[in-house]
Amino acid sequence: MLAVIKANAYGHGIVTAAEALGGADAFAVARLEEAGMLRAAGCRARIVLLQGVADAHELGKAAELDLEPFVHQTAQIELLEAWRGAHAFPVWLKIDSGMGRLGFRPAQVQAAAGRLAACGRVAGPANLVTHLAEAEQRGNALTRAQIDLFNEVTRGMPGERSIANSAGLIAWPDAQADWVRPGIMLYGISPFEDAIGADLGLKPVMTLETRVLALKELAAGDRVGYGGTFTARRAARIAIAAAGYGDGYPRSAANGTPVQVNGMPAELVGRVSMDMLAIDVSEVLQVSVGDPVQLWGPAVPVERVAASAGTIAYELTCRVSRRVRFERRP
Questions:
Q1: Which of 56, 205, 261, 302 is positioned for an S-S bond with 313, CB 3.0–4.6 A?
Q2: Per-residue pLDDT tens over the stretch 166-215
Q3: Percent of the chain scored above 70 by pLDDT?
Q4: Is it true that domain 208-318 has CATH number 2.40.37.10?
Q5: What is the pTM assigned to this prediction?
């Protein structure tokens, strides 16, 4: 298992995630800075650099940190061929099987692999990897074609293989190969639009919570927040919670977005502000200033919040801001 903990472990804390996922066979990060944080924290595990290196300086840093870079373009092969240091790099050869982003096209793979095999600074045969563009769509024809193309292109080549991301691991068993690269599912979040983590037996590991800052009584016709995007149809009670887009909660969250107040379900009303948001607590029997508000977590699936905001759960967890206090709980 190559556990993907890039982007500060999808917002969960890269060092915390590495400690919690200590049983993984290796970790994957996007950038050198992320790998440096892990090494500085004492992580001695294998670390794979998904974007590879950009120049000789970065290659030297990758050697210093003992990283395994992806190789997805000819310039990176040239950097390895020009390397004069003593370190030999285990590398992962990226193949573009249909994602259209990084990687060698199928017709280029044999030549790229040959150059890496002939390079004295590459340790052993390159691992072979591709990335699925639409694995979250079960039965998708492009995904089927990507898997088949990757298998055809790499047939008979040495090196271990990696295809499956989270969605691929769950929905495409024949994509598991030698290495799987779970990301979002490690954090208890579903990669599928039609499911939440609990549907897949996953448990969310992030809870975003705050408290009730104030309570307000509304009369029919009263409006709430900037732009008056919510107007009370009847007398209502709202709670103002101490959180907003300055904390990473989505400003685009619509009226009716689920929240939990004092252990009871409730709904967002009005436009989210930088530091505050409003919740209709008319149906919550007991609410007081200081009561807990769960914005997402075990009782409020982040996937549901993301859907109400017109985005994906990945974005919500990644953009929780620095001013939010993180606690690691058992």
A1: 302
A2: 999 999 999 999 999 999 999 999 999 999 999 999 999 999 999 999 99
A3: 100
A4: yes
A5: 0.95
Nearest of 295, 306, 302 to residue 268 by alpha carbon: 295
Residue 90 burial by CB count (10 A; 0-12/13-18/19+): exposed, middle or buried?
middle
Q: Mean pLDDT across the chain, nearest whole number?
A: 97
Tokens, residue 44: 């001695």
**Residue 225 near residue 271, CB atoms below 8 Å:** yes
**Closest Cα to residue 186, out of 201, 172, 202?**
202
Burial class (CB in 10 A: 0-12, 13-18, 19+), 118: exposed
Please answer whether residues 29 and 53 qualify as being in contact, where contact means their C-beta atoms are separated by less than 8 angstroms: no
How is the chain split into domains, by residue range?
Answer: 2-194, 208-318
How far apart, in whole angstroms, are the C-alpha atoms of residue 96 and residue 107? 10
pLDDT band at 3 (very low <50, low <70, confident <90, very high): very high
Closest by Cα among 12, 53, 59 to 30? 53
Q: Which CATH number among 3.20.20.10, 2.30.40.10, 1.25.40.10, 3.50.50.60 corresponds to the domain 2-194?
A: 3.20.20.10
